[in-house]
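Hi everyone, sorry if this is the wrong subforum. Our group has a chain we'd like a structural model of before ordering constructs, and none of us has done structure prediction before. Sequence below.
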Amino acid sequence: MKNMHFYLLFISILVSGGNVVVAQDNLLSDYRWKTIDATGEVTGRHENAFVEYKGKFYLIGGRGINPVNVFDPETNSWEVKSKSPMQIHHFQAVVYGDAIYLMGAMSGGYPGEKPLANIWIYYPETDEWEKGPEIPENRRRGGAGTVVYNGKIYMVCGIEYGHTSGTNNYFDSFDPKTGEWEVLTKAPHIRDHFPAIVVDSKLYCIGGRNTSVHYPDNFGAFFNSTVPEIDVYDFKEKKWHTLPESLPVPTAAGGSVNIGTYILYMGGEGRQKQAYNQTQCLDISTGQWSQLSPMVTGRHGTGAINYEGKIYKAAGSPNKGGGNLTSIEVFSMDNE
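Answer:
Right subforum, don't worry. Here is the predicted structure as tokens:
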């Protein structure tokens, strides 16, 4: 039965009087990554989004003008949909209603990519693209973290001028119903190339870097300028704070998911030549980090999906900088 391990977890909580940490530690320690032998056509890409909509996984954007690829976890197969209207890369897509929203994105070639002037909207059920509302000129940036909370889309941090300058700690909200854009309190640290995630009533900024860092003899010095601090915005208190414990292996452009009382942060790029394969686990209840089983292939520049108790990660780059993967991995119980 699907999710049987989660049903057992909930039963163990009731019987043991709420010993959540021990039960979930044992559960996650049994998880392993394996490559899925998928069928169908998929376009290799990186700096793309990977998001779930009604039980299917959408691989969208990335450098170049790519088709939308749709993965069905029931059949382990890929399907090809329409191409994006332009290059759309360096963004975190979110699902709102019957659409996938793309904001906080860049277009064009390295290193002078430009932030998109408009929000773009993709409708999975009709395979159609729509040019959405204009983003205020002074709030446009790419490589930002984007989430949905209580009917609004929130965008945090990012970089204004491609891979050259303008890394920031901006924080904004957009209401798709009214079109209202609101400037909010800045985050404690500047960062770009990172995923944001909401758990309960808190937004977590994990990973990323300061891509504005360059030296006369080393333009790519930004690869080493990762941001280890974890910034958290409490929507109820409307305040930011920084967790006492930092990300153990700081990287940029990793993927993050929530599972139980944990946030998993996977992959990314940084000092080494290859993309990282670490699966780093934050216990939200204690603020402590641990390391879980590593990915089969290190990758950066793509998202991650938690679907029915399994974690999926597809595409991305295996190297620091460029390179395109077509593979998809799943993180699940060792015997599944």
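For your construct planning: The first strand starts at residue 31 and ends at 35. The two ends are 11 Å apart (CA to CA).
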